[in-house]
Amino acid sequence: MLLTAVMSGFDGISSTNSCGLPELILRAYRAIEKGDAATARDLHRLWYPFRALAREFGQPQTVKAAMNLRGFDGGSVRLPLRDLEPAKVAQVAEVLRAMATDRRSNVALAA
Questions:
Q1: Distance (Å, rounded) from C-alpha 80 to C-alpha 16?
Q2: Are 46 and 105 contacting, i.e. CB atoms less than 8 angstroms apart?
Q3: Per-residue pLDDT tens for 18-64?
Q4: What is the dihedral of CA 22, 89, 72, 96, to 10 degrees?
């Protein structure tokens, strides 16, 4: 709904995912501000695999895993939620690695 909200005239947006993918979400937002819906759409499509995992694994667990994988201070989720199991974290890492290979994303992983 991010792009739809901005295109509908909202003054801004809030997304849990912006904590894990700030540069990508900001670039999409800026593209919409400039009237470049095609670029915003393409950038939004880049992180569809991440959104699919978030729907499957839950939020905020998935974004916290992404933040930690990227070297941000994502920490852990609060009870009663549980952090992702190592196998799921590995799947998030795989999606982030794929995104990082696309130069349009500007997504970088922690060293």
A1: 18
A2: yes
A3: 889 998 888 888 888 898 989 989 998 999 999 999 999 999 999 99
A4: -40
In 3D space, the residue among 38, 4, 37, 40 whose CA is nearest the CA of residue 25 turns out to be 40
CA 65/CA 34 separation, integer angstroms: 32
Share of the chain above pLDDT 70, in %: 86
Calculate the CA 99 to chain-centre distance: 10
Yes or no: say if 2 and 15 are a contact pair by the CB < 8 Å rule.
Answer: yes
Residue with tokens 């070297």: 71
CA proximity to 96, closest of 84, 83, 107, 88: 107
Separation CA 103–CA 111 (nearest Å)? 17
The pTM for the full model equals 0.84
Q: How many other β-carbons are positioned within 10 Å of the β-carbon of residue 24?
A: 22
Going from the C-alpha of 104 to that of each of 10, 75, 90, the distances in angstroms are 25, 28, 23
